[in-house]
């Protein structure tokens, strides 16, 4: 180990240097604090043994300067002193010294204290190495999560998608890189659109993995289970799809896992819409005039109870109506004062801004939630699916 010996007494410096070399250390010598400071700045020094009393820059002042410099590697500092008063000890410790050796010192005591200092420096070096390895590992994880986040966004449907008079827009913001919220929409057959929004319990990677799986599982073929033809025409039963998902995802091996969802079918030609609500927040129907109505009856979560019953409700959208489907990350956003955003605040927001087009409404909502929380970022995954219905073509 390289040790810097600082003492204005030549005989002491020679004696110390001789001992240190005998013990296998490399020695650098300085005859005062100013010279020592110059050496420390230009050469890698991690261990200093310095006399207390020296002309110019004394031992405690040199130590203080080392600490204030905040070098990348820690410098272990031993002060040599003939002082043994308590106030002197306090002064030395306040200057940042790690240890003291009282003059005249024994060789055994000095060797033991140097070995103790060397162990501390080795521990610090090991810790720095572990921190570097941890930082590298976290960098890999972060890059993987960023890639997963891009994949999750690519799995979402195209924004501003139009199916005749019906248009879908969405807002999506996971609490971490990736999240358990998901949404989608696609044609099932002529003049019939399936749509859904899902909130998987928990956050982060475990929830996102289930969300990915659900996105792949909900296909037009599955959604045709909800459509039946009889002599009276087409019957829509979106609860059949939710029942199928409930059976499929019951055997997941995690008693704390479940998800809430809305799954619906919509006829653009007539505005007829039928939705199965599985414990997801009540969708809000905003009329052209700005009135806001909560729809649905609640329902049970999916993949929680094997024999859960699911039902659906039906309504007809009128030209100018807008349906908002959202995760509880909206209404359960918390302010710095520990107050929830809440459903009533959300409904008032929609009433006050009902004249905005849907993309502007969703971006304004994001800003309103960020302002309510006191900054960007959310504690829970945030997703909103908006369905706008206009006048069907003749």
Major sheet size, sense and barrel closure: 6 strands, antiparallel
Q: What is the rounded distance between the termini?
A: 89 Å
Task: Give the spatial strand order of the biggest sheet.
Answer: 6-7-18-17-14-15
Number of helices: 11
Helical proportion, percent range? 25-40%
Q: What order do the helices and strands follow?
A: EHEHEHEHEHEEEEHHEEHEEEEEEHHHE
What is the 3D shape? elongated
What does this structure look like?
With 394 residues, this protein is an alpha+beta fold. It folds into 2 domains: 2-128, Rossmann fold; 156-389, Phosphatase 2c, domain 1 (4-Layer Sandwich). It is 38% helix and 26% strand. The protein has 11 helices and 18 strands. The protein has helices at residues 10-22, 33-42, 59-69, 86-94, 107-155, 204-217, 220-223, 239-248, 328-331, 343-352, 358-373; strands at 2-6, 26-30, 47-51, 76-81, 99-102, 161-163, 166-173, 181-189, 192-200, 227-230, 233-236, 259-266, 272-278, 284-286, 292-294, 312-316, 322-326, 382-389. The strands form 4 sheets. The protein has a 6-stranded antiparallel sheet. Strands 2-1-3-4-5 form a 5-stranded parallel sheet, sandwiched between helices. Strands 8-9-12-13-16 form a 5-stranded antiparallel sheet. Helix 1 links the parallel strand 1 and strand 2. The longest helix is centred in the first third of the chain and has 49 residues, at 107-155.
């Amino acid at each position: 180990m390289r040790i810097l010996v600082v003492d204005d007494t030549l005989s002491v410096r020679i004696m110390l240097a001789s001992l240190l070399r005998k013990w296998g250390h490399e020695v650098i010598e300085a005859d005062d604090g100013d010279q020592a400071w110059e050496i420390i700045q230009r050469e890698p020094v991690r261990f200093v043994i310095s006399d207390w009393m020296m002309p110019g820059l004394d031992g405690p002042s040199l130590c203080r300067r080392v600490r204030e410099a905040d070098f990348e590697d820690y410098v272990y500092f031993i002060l040599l002193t003939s002082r043994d008063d308590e106030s002197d000890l306090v002064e030395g410790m306040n200057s940042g010294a790690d240890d003291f050796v009282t003059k005249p010192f024994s060789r055994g005591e000095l060797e033991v204290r140097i070995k103790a200092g060397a162990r501390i420096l080795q521990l610090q070096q090991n810790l720095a190495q572990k921190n570097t390895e941890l930082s590298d590992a976290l960098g890999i994880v972060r890059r993987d999560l960023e890639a997963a986040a891009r994949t999750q966004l690519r799995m979402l449907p195209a924004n501003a998608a139009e199916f005749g008079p019906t248009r879908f827009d969405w807002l999506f913001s996971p609490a971490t890189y990736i999240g358990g919220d998901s949404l989608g929409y696609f044609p099932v057959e002529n003049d019939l659109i399936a749509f859904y929004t899902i909130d998987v319990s928990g956050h982060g990677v475990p929830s996102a993995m289930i969300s990915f799986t659900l996105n792949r599982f909900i296909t037009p073929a599955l959604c045709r289970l909800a459509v039946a033809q009889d002599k009276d025409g087409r019957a829509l039963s979106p609860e059949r799809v939710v029942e199928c998902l409930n059976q499929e995802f019951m055997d997941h091996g995690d008693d704390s896992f479940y998800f809430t969802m809305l799954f619906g079918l919509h006829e653009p030609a007539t505005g007829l819409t039928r939705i199965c609500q599985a414990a997801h927040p009540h969708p809000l129907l905003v009329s052209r005039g700005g009135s806001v109505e909560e729809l649905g009856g609640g329902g049970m979560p999916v993949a929680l109870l094997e024999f859960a019953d699911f039902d659906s409700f039906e309504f007809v959208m009128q030209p100018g109506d807008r349906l908002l489907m959202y995760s509880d990350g909206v209404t359960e956003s918390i302010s710095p004062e520990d107050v929830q955003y809440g459903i009533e605040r959300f409904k008032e927001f929609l009433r006050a801004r009902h004249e905005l087009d849907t993309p502007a409404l969703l971006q304004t909502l994001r800003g309103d939630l960020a302002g309510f929380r006191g900054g960007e970022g959310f504690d829970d995954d945030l997703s909103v699916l908006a369905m706008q219905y206009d006048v069907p073509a003749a």
